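Materials and Methods. Structural model of DUF4367 domain-containing protein. The 168-residue sequence of DUF4367 domain-containing protein from Heyndrickxia sporothermodurans was retrieved and submitted for structure prediction as follows.
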Amino acid sequence: MRFISVFFIGFILLFNIQGNQVNAKTNDPIRSFKITLKNDGYVSLNKAISTYENKEKVNVLIPDIPINYNYKVGKAYKNELKLIWYDLNSITSNNFILNIKPAKKKEVTFLPLDKSEKVILKNGIEGYFFKDNFYMFAFIKDQVEYCYTLKKSTLTKEGFIEIANTFN
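The predicted structure was written out as tokens:
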């Protein structure tokens, strides 16, 4: 009988400790968010870029972003790379998303050109600005198509153009 009591108490303690570990994950929204991204296949920005460059045999350019972000992740898909900059202080608000893929044509395909405003960047490359419930800017450089998005923007069209001019 004593063995059963000790076993039962040990089992309850073990279950309680495991339960507390689970609760620690769910009670910390930032940790939970990072775990979710990792489970969805997101890795560090540099690792995602390196994986994609090796697979697609291209050099990926990254812009200077004039907004404060403190967490950066990426995911290499079959023919596309998705990079996301987050501000962990406001995870759901305004993150910067950069999609990259090989340019199969000489025309931007990430956004509707007929609803976009054409602009010329400092290096003479054509870019396209799209504004709806979110803001997008797309262009092709060195046979790679870039498109970045902000859900709601504190940037003007000129701010989006400035970001495009920093891809080096």
